Amino acid sequence: MREHNLHRTAFSIGWSSFSALLLAVAMPVAAEESESDGSANADWVEEIIVTAEKREENVLDVPLTMSAFSAQMLEELGMTNDEDLENMVPGLQFGYDTEGNGISMRGIGTQKAVQYNADLAVAFYVDGVYTNDIYGLAPNLFDIERVEVARGPQGTLNGRNSIAGSVSYYNKRPTDTWDLEFLSEFTDQFSQRYNVAFGGPIDVLSNLQGGVLEGAKLSFRITAGYHEGDGAQENIGSAGDLDAPDEFTFAPQIRLTTDRADVNLRYQQAHDTGSSRAQVRLSDRDTTSPTYLIGPWPVANPTYLYDQRNPAVEACPSEQFRVYGGICDDIKNVVVSNRASMKDNETERWSFNFDYDISDTIAIRYTFGSTVTETWQVLDGDSTARVGSAQDPYVPADCVTNYGLQHCLDEGVFFQDTEVARPWDNDESSHEVQLFSDLDGPFNFVVGVYKYQNESHWRYRGINYADPRLFYNAEERVALIDLDEDGTPDYANCEQFYQQYVLGDDDPATPYIDGVSQNPSTRLGCEPGNDHSLKGGSSSGAAYDVQAFFVNGEYKINDAWQVSGGLRTTEDKKSQVGVSGTSGVAFILDVPITSFGGLANRADEWKKTIGHVSVEYTPDEDRLYYGRISTGFRAGGFNQISGGTSAEDIANNIVPATFEGEELVNYEVGIKGLFLDQRLMLSAGAYKQFFDGFHLNEIQRIDPAKADVRDDPFLEYTGNIDGTEIGGAEVEATWYINDRWRASGFYNYLDSSVGNVRAFFFNRDADDEGTFTHTWIDLETGTQMSAEIDAPRDATGRRLPQQPKHKGALTLTYSRSLPNGGGLSVLSSLSFTGEKYPNIGNIEYQKLDAYKRWDLRVSWDMPNNNVNVTGYVQNVLDEVGIQEYAFDWGWLTEPRQVGVQVRWRPQLNN
Fold first, then answer.
1. Is 5 exposed, middle or buried, given 0-12, 13-18 or 19+ CB atoms closer than 10 A?
2. Which single residue of 166, 436, 605, 867 could bond 162 by disulfide (Cβ 3.0 to 4.6 Å)?
3. Alpha-carbon 83 to chain mean position
4. C-alpha dist (Å) from residue 755 to 694, 719, 797, 831, 844
């Protein structure tokens, strides 16, 4: 306890010191510049209008830390995907592994693999519509008006699930001015992209006289794109490269505007039938031993006597991570696979935005959204190129070639040739009504109601083509069952076996016969045929029904001081709409036999009221100082039925069926404004967050009294950890050095302290924290076994996983006009992501190294300003970093890419 308190004290002192230093630097700059002429160079800085607090306002007037990117900034920086956005935003980390931390902000993420109805920590919006699904949100970031990334809890006004922050995409809307933009892109990865946006007025209302539509304007906009390529992730196996897009997007809009109303309807479809990106194994497997350890348990090694190293770490020391520690500098985003990567992802999104001025001082807004998404991804599951030999299809060919068939059989050499498919579908809709005031007095408000419904289903199918049980003939296998060893089959046919053995006595007097479990609950049916490869898998579903009411008010005390605050009461109803699983015939007639089991539907609800209070001080129109206290809430959920957890575990209270909601209090101070004669735009802030019930994936020891005969004394599930703290500071700035040079960038410092928790994680370098003796029944023999196992370790005070302590970016831009017209600009951007830990164990030899990315872009605007040609090199040094890590696997950053873009914007209104 004393060490924990010392850690928390040191953490608080460090954070406070950094906050004081930040404000000490910012305040003299503000004081020095406060007497300057605020209008001398008002055109230096581009004004970015955002709607983070539901009203249109300059990003410098919003009392919270946020980043905003206009259409021009997105184009200049060459931002086209999640990784580009991540590199330019403090505290934001994208993650794609369900076992990892997922998409996180300031270290708060979502481990979806161990939760049903998992609520995202970072909320995503498209044109004001919340979505639980991130596929197809803003394809290639083309025809986007702006992107807003708000950090810290945003739940008072912004929908749901924004305990860590929110990312909002706003598409360009139709206007009554004709415009056309065409973009083509070609890269050295043999990818090509074509995007077009076209719109203008529809002249059918201009002759209307009188009525509510007098003076109304109708306009349209159509956005479309096609993106295809040969694959950015190299595969040295036989199945072709991965991460190859083949995506078509189409988005029409129609808009009606009058003196009082603004109505916009948008439909978007995105469909990608290319190939998925794969995780990369970050360590070599030991191919010299017939077994390897998972924790303390030896399991058969499918790479025994395999003759090929892992290509991703081929230039690294053998068995890095496990023996030498760390990741070497020469890791490559390369895989080996003999199974093709495929995907079929499709989404259809509707959004309807209706704004109406009831009077000069009161306005109403209605926002509707609907999304239907289906994704289907297939990947190689064993990350090897091993195939069966001609002599025996279930013995690897490389072993037979190198050692001979008999040696391989004697050694028991086997292999895996697996293919994994993960279909997922999502159907969601939302309604939001807001009432705004624009009163002449000092007080104004926003009041709203919100409703959201969602139903999603996921499925898992894993096929091991090297497992002979997938191709058993059930009748032939039944004829081999002779448990009493009398020399004759025990069952005449499959039907008799099914009726007497599978559906027989639920509570047999003898639970084991010759070491074979006789419990029919672990047995499956006797399926006909010889090919059962498509009959296995598992599935589940989840549903949400959410409703909320919110109110926000602001009061202007005088010209310099303003206070604001808001409350939101939310009710989340969740249900698990079914879990089912079957291993098909693959595991029948071969003992012991297990299945995933099943679980009846579960339902629960979580209610909470959250809020915020802000104090703003504006000494002049170019300065804002603010302090903010906000609370956040994320509803609880259901623990999953897999990874060793079963319906019986939950029914017997070995694992809690549900976990509670997560709450935080966020304290934040900041400064925003224009300095140095309005050439410097600065936004800086410091924050501290305190959690109750922090959601954390835990591997915990089972109560020995409840462990029964299981061989594994640990279970993995989501629990609530009290006492977790996160704190840090951020600085974003853009400096217009002169009319040709501009520098911009950010730096963020982020640290955390996990609350009081003990969890199991293997650490070969740790001091001995004790062991315990575990006993269990071997299901194959029915005999009692025992082993001495490391006890769970104290993780209190350690840093959260996937959380870099330091992150930053610096962009330098040079632009000038050319003598014959047009212009030239050169941009150099360097981003840096610091080292991080893959789990709360903070194990030094597993620490993920820092990485950086350097991009170069050269753009030429032709004299008529209708055509822009840009050449670029992304990741000039071809440095690959680990974006997200889980177990021995990681998602790696993009390799070097060289490309050229051509934009054509003809003048259509001349």
1. exposed
2. 166
3. 11
4. 8, 12, 6, 31, 20
DSSP assignment of 35-58: TS-TTTTTTSSPP-EE-TTSS-EE
Give the chain's end-to-end CA distance (angstroms, integer).
75
Q: Which residues contact 184 (CB under 8 A, 6 or more apart)?
A: 192, 193, 194, 195, 901, 902
Least confident of 149-153, 463-467, 752-756: 463-467
Give pairs for 765-771: CB < 8 Å, separation 24+.
765/843, 765/844, 765/845, 766/793, 766/843, 769/793, 769/794
What digits encode the pLDDT tens for the residues 180-223?
999 999 999 888 999 999 999 998 876 766 666 777 899 999 99
The owner of tokens 């009726």 is: 499
Domains recognised in the chain with CATH numbers: 2-282+331-382+417-467+538-904 (2.40.170.20), 473-529 (no CATH)
Report pLDDT for 344: 93
What is the mean pLDDT of the segment spanning 318-340? 73
Cβ(633)–Cβ(662) under 8 Å?
yes
Tens-digit pLDDT profile for residues 848-875: 889 999 999 999 999 887 999 999 999 9
Q: Is 122 helix (H, G, I), strand (E, B) or coil?
A: strand
In this predicted structure, what is the pLDDT of residue 443?
Answer: 96
Q: Which residues of 35-56 are buried (b: 16+ CB within 10 A; e: fewer)?
A: ebebeeeeebbeebebbbbbbe
What are the tokens at 874?
A: 């992304």
CA distances to 71, 415, 707 from 220, in Å: 19, 58, 64
Residue 399, SS3 per DSSP: helix
203 exposure class (CB count in 10 Å sphere: 0-12, 13-18, 19+) = exposed
Kindly give the residue spans of alpha helices, DSSP state H, lying in 668-733: 704-707
Q: What is the mean pLDDT of the chain?
A: 82
Burial, 111: exposed, middle or buried (Cβ in 10 Å; 0-12, 13-18, 19+)? buried
Is residue 251 a contact partner of residue 266, using CB atoms and an 8 Å limit?
yes
Q: What is the pLDDT of residue 326?
A: 57
- Please give the sequence-ordered ranges of beta strands (E in DSSP) within 754-822, or none if there are none: 758-759, 771-777, 784-790, 793-794, 806-817
Q: Residues 798-819: pLDDT tens digits?
A: 999 888 999 999 999 999 999 8
Q: What is the residue whose two structure tokens read 């990117």?
A: 69
Taking the C-alpha atoms of residue 203 and residue 210, their distance in angstroms, rounded to an integer, is 17
The pLDDT of 495-516, averaged and rounded, is: 52
Range from 236-250, 370-384, 631-645, 822-836 carrying the lowest mean pLDDT: 631-645
Continuous segment of H or E residues that includes residue 446: strand 443-464
Structural contact between residues 178 and 909, judged by C-beta atoms closer than 8 angstroms: yes
Q: How far is CA 718 from the centre of its chain?
A: 17
Q: Answer whether residue 576 shows pLDDT above 70.
A: yes
Pick the more confident residue, 31 or 52: 52
